[in-house]
Structure formats: C-alpha cells, structure tokens
UniProtKB/TrEMBL annotation:
PANTHER family: RHODANESE-LIKE DOMAIN-CONTAINING PROTEIN 15, CHLOROPLASTIC. PROSITE patterns: PROKAR_LIPOPROTEIN, RHODANESE_3. CDD domains: RHOD. Residues 1-27 form the signal peptide. Keywords: Signal. It comes from the Bacteria. Residues 43-133 form the Rhodanese domain. SUPFAM superfamilies: Rhodanese/Cell cycle control phosphatase. InterPro entries: Rhodanese-like_dom (IPR001763), Rhodanese-like_dom_sf (IPR036873), Thiosulfate_ST/Rhodanese-like (IPR052367). This is Rhodanese-like domain-containing protein.
C-alpha cells in the first residue's frame, strides 16, 4: 500500500469520526407515544410542557399546562434559555416536525431530558385526550 492510499484511508476515517461526534445523536431518539407522554407527566408533575406551535395554533387548543414558545420565532432560544436545563422538558407541535426541531435545539443548548410527543396535538386529539383553550 502506498503512502497516498494509507493517508486517504486515515483521512476518511478521521473525517467520519469527526462528523459522527458533531451530530446530535440524541435528537434521533424516537418520539414518545401518548401513553409514555402521560406517564412521564404523571411521574414528573414539575416537567415543563411546551407547545412549540404558533400563538394562533396554541390559542385554538392545547394540552393542559402547556406554555407556548413558538419554535419558528426568533425569541425561541432566548426564552427557553431561561429554563432549568436539568428539568424534564416535554415538547409538541401539530404533528411532530416542529417539535423535533425544538427538541434538537433544546439539546444543543444543553437540556438533558427532552421528550417529544409522537403525532403532536393531532395525535393527542385523535386519541380523544383533553384539549384546553388557554
């Protein structure tokens, strides 16, 4: 094996290792089911619940106890940065896309326990769970 081939192999392995270490593996964690979400909430009543949808969506109905912090708003990071990073944070949106983004951002900010509701408020409603007007 010549020097260039060995260098290329070593370079490729190093690049792969760097890319793996930079990717947030915990943001790939699966979302939790409605049952799991309820169990976590019951076991940890101090958990912070965040509806990451727009204020209009939030005002149309949300999960009881949820605070509205819109993940698409520029104020999302400053607002969540004031929260306790060691506290369980439970996020949801309409169907799961924005909450996955919010979960990844929270984890990048150092939050250690972020739970993302599978199916969002649509799934919650489909399961006939209670929705409240804020």
């Amino acid at each position: 094996m010549n020097l260039n081939t060995r260098f290329l192999g070593l370079f490729t392995a190093l690049l792969f290792a760097i890319l793996q270490s930079c990717s947030p593996t915990s943001s790939n964690d699966p979302q939790v089911t409605i049952t799991e979400f309820e169990e976590i909430r019951a076991a940890q009543p101090e958990a912070i619940i965040i509806d990451v949808r727009t204020p209009a969506e939030y005002n149309s109905g949300t999960i009881e106890g949820a605070n509205n912090i819109n993940v698409l708003d520029d104020s999302f990071v400053p607002k969540v940065s004031t929260l306790d990073k060691n506290q369980t944070v439970m996020v949801f949106c309409k169907s799961g896309g924005r909450s996955a983004k919010a979960k990844a951002q929270l984890q990048e900010l150092g939050f250690t326990n972020v739970v993302d509701l599978e199916g969002g408020i649509k799934g919650w409603k489909a399961a006939d769970k209670k929705v409240v007007k804020p």
